[in-house]
TrEMBL record:
Assigned protein family: Belongs to the PrpF family.
Entry-linked NCBIfam families: OMA_tautomer (NF033377)
Keyword Transcription regulation among UniProt keywords: no
InterPro entries: OMA_tautomer-like, PrpF-like
Name of the protein in its database record: 4-oxalomesaconate tautomerase
Length: 351
């Protein structure tokens, strides 16, 4: 399925090995990793197209289904469950209805999803006229050609603190940062502080070795500061460079996952950016153009924009806390069938 601006393989948990190591080994073979082209599997040779969603009925009384996101590395034999994916989340509700995990309503269906990676909850609502998932519609999102049916995703406030360090601003490697977690651990930095404009293409940014090295140092330092420990082998936290908007939005962004520059922006990463821009004296607030009377924030990215509805309140500890986060995405079923993974390697190295 395509979910938002990502693409991934969606599985029922019951169709995969229950033991994580065996499951991950199988998924590497299914996706064609490790290989920079993933030529022998389903992967699309990019982190945004090398993703897996594992779905099961939920035992949580506040959820209908459980969703485990797995990021499959392209050129390394690695499978990570350290983060959520808000883009593939857009396809979880339709998939749950397609597989009979949730009954469809006659006009619309709301599916409550527990994201196992973080324990956070979300509710996805989408059209199901006549009790069948409708994928066609007139909703357009940047980074996806054409239009499709809307999927409204609402996020209740999560259990994690909005400010993982307890501060609105920190400094890492001489760079002012705001560390925020509104569903995705994210680090906000002004592009200018890193000697780039923030308007470069992803390819241009990836071809800047000095920037890549600086971002790596910042990520390792801020990972510990945010309580994430050693993040050298993970894709979190996300690093987002901020610049003034160019096309009528609130802010321009360039996000790294962790060293590849996102061709758009992830849903949960955008939710964290939006919340960060609501903070008084946060990094980037002086660059942003916000309407204090409007919860909607338009976030510009390399291939267009993403609209997030975001508002903050005050938590029991007196610190800022998320109050409401919502986004409209789209999803589409691409194919439904049987995948034939390559043979497992023989213990002695044969096939």
């Amino acid at each position: 399925m395509r979910g938002g601006t990502s693409k991934g393989a969606y599985f029922l948990a019951s169709d995969l090995p229950a033991e994580p190591a065996a499951r991950d080994e199988l998924l590497l073979r299914i996706m064609g990793s490790p290989d920079e082209r993933q030529i022998d599997g389903l992967g699309g040779a990019h982190p945004l197209t090398s993703k897996v969603a594992v779905v099961a009925p939920s035992a949580d009384p506040h959820a209908d289904v459980d969703y485990l996101f797995l990021q499959i590395a392209v050129d390394r034999p690695e499978v990570s469950d350290r983060q959520n994916c808000g883009n593939l989340l857009a396809g979880i509700g339709p998939f749950a209805v397609e597989r009979g995990l949730v009954p469809a309503g006659e006009e619309r269906t709301a599916v409550r999803v527990r994201m196992l990676n973080s324990g956070d909850l979300a509710t996805a609502t989408f059209p199901t006229p006549g009790g069948r998932v409708q994928y066609t519609g007139d909703t357009e999102i940047s980074g996806v050609p054409g239009t499709a049916a809307p999927v409204l995703i609402e996020f209740p406030p999560g259990a994690s603190p909005l400010l993982p360090t307890g501060r609105v601003r920190d400094e890492i490697d001489g760079i002012p940062v705001t560390c925020v977690d509104n569903g995705m651990p994210t680090v906000l930095m002004e592009a200018e502080a890193l000697k780039v404009t923030g308007y470069e293409s992803p390819a241009e940014l990836e071809a800047n070795p000095a920037l890549t090295d600086r971002l790596r140092r910042i990520r390792l330092g801020v990972g510990r500061l945010m309580g994430l420990g050693d993040v050298s082998a993970t894709t979190v936290p996300k690093l987002t460079l901020l610049a003034p908007p160019r096309y009528g939005g609130a802010i321009t962004t360039r996000t790294f996952i962790p060293e590849r520059c996102h061709t758009s922006i992830g849903v949960l990463g955008a939710a964290s950016v939006a919340a960060g821009l609501r903070l008084d004296a946060g990094v980037g607030t002086d660059l942003a153009r916000l309407d204090p009377a409007d919860d909607r924030i338009r976030i510009e990215h390399p291939t267009g924009f993403l609209d997030i509805e975001s508002s903050l309140g005050t938590g029991a500890d007196g610190l800022p806390a998320a109050r409401r986060t919502a986004v409209v995405r789209t999803a589409r079923k691409l194919f439904d069938g049987t995948v034939f993974p390559r043979a497992a390697a023989h213990p002695q190295g044969g096939q």
